[in-house]
Every structure is written in C-alpha cells, then in structure tokens.
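Blinded run. Sample ID left blank on purpose so nobody reads anything into the name before looking at the predicted structure. Input follows.
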Amino acid sequence: MTTSNQKNTELEQLESFLRFLGIKDYQLIDKKNESPDFILMIEGEKIGVEVTEIYRKYTNGNSAKVESDLPKIVEGAVRLYNEKKGLPCSFGVGFYGEKAVTRKKDVIKELGEFLYQLSVDNLNINDSEIKEIKPDINKFPLLSIVSSIHVKKINNTVSSGFTTSIFGAVNMEGNELRGAIESKAKKINKYKERCETIWLLIVLPSMVLSGDFCLSNYDVNIDNNGFDAVYILDQYREQIKCVKQA
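Blinded prediction complete.
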C-alpha cells in the first residue's frame, strides 16, 4: 500500500509533470486511491495517471537505497568516534558511488575505528585548516568504497559528519524503460475500470548523493501496451519526453 509520504511525493511529481506540459486547467478528482494513482479531469475528459519511479540497480538494491545508506554509515561512524572521545572535528566522507555497500554495520565500525586512530596518531590540524586523507586499504579493506575524507577541527564538544559521493548519471536505456512499462501494463484492465483514458508517468527522481538515470534521445519501441500515453519526467533536469501518445 502507498504510504502518505510516497503519495505526497507522487502528487508533487504529477504537478511538475502537468506544469512542464503546460496543462493549467485541470481538476484533480481523485488523489487518495490507487490503480491508477490519480484521476484528473482535463477539458471534460477523465484521465487516469499512474506514476512510477525508476532507479538504477546495484548489487544490494538500488540507488535509492544507496542514497539512504551512505549518510547512515557516516552518522554511525562519527557516533562511534565520539564515544571514543576523539578530537572534535567535522568529517566530510566521500564515497565511490558505483561501489554498493553490502556490509553496512561492518563498514560503520571500520570507518569509526579509522577516524579514531587518525585522531590519536596524526591528526594535527589548526582551527582553519581542512585536511584531506585517504584510508589505508590494507588495514581497513572495507573502506575501499571511500574515495576521500576531509577533516576540519571544530570548536565543539562532539564531532559531526556529512556525506558526498561520486556517482555518474547514465542515459536511460530501453530495457529499463520497457520493463517499467510492461510491469505497469499488467494492471491496465484494472486501471480502465475507473476511467477509459490512462497515462503512464515514469519519473527519473532527483537524487542528492547518487547520480541516476537521465533522459536520452533513445527511441523506445513500446508496442501495444494499453496506455494512451507514456511520459518520462527527468526531475533533476526538469525535462519531459513523450514516448507514446494516442
């Protein structure tokens, strides 16, 4: 079942989609039910809109999970560091985005231990200096996913941390797009129990840490799938593309 947060996100995506299409005169007559997610009245026509997101796949899930995991790793590691009474610092931890995290708890422990050893052994910085360091992978093999760490001494009682990452956005490929359409097309009969015209909105969501899919000029043969129109919304770049229209 769709959560209230997810529903609110889908509503924001729908509103962006309509704005990019230049559709201003519409009435949202059903936003609470599902299958399809929304029903609109546009120029006297009742149109159902099903909204779905596509993320890049990784070995331990997808880019949305990576987006969630990385800050938790830094937060957990800095918490361990504070428990050991390390020198109060601000840590900026950079990750190789394409290296998915498969042992999160172990990475947290190893990163916390590395930061503490760094503080004890050789963290000699003044109040204004930002120092860049890289983990010794021989001693801390799980930190091969860490690209660099920037450290600055702070006038505080405890340390803090933030996360950056190196992710490269890739063009949306035909297989991912076809798979998303085919998955939703299985429910087309259910959608059409509520309205005759059905649009599919595929969203490439904005990501803070992880570069994700972006639109390309790739033409996709989507055959007969039952939808009256299929749109792709590249949320980060504020672009929209119609791959099928009746």
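Unblinding after everyone has recorded impressions. Residues 59-166 form one domain.
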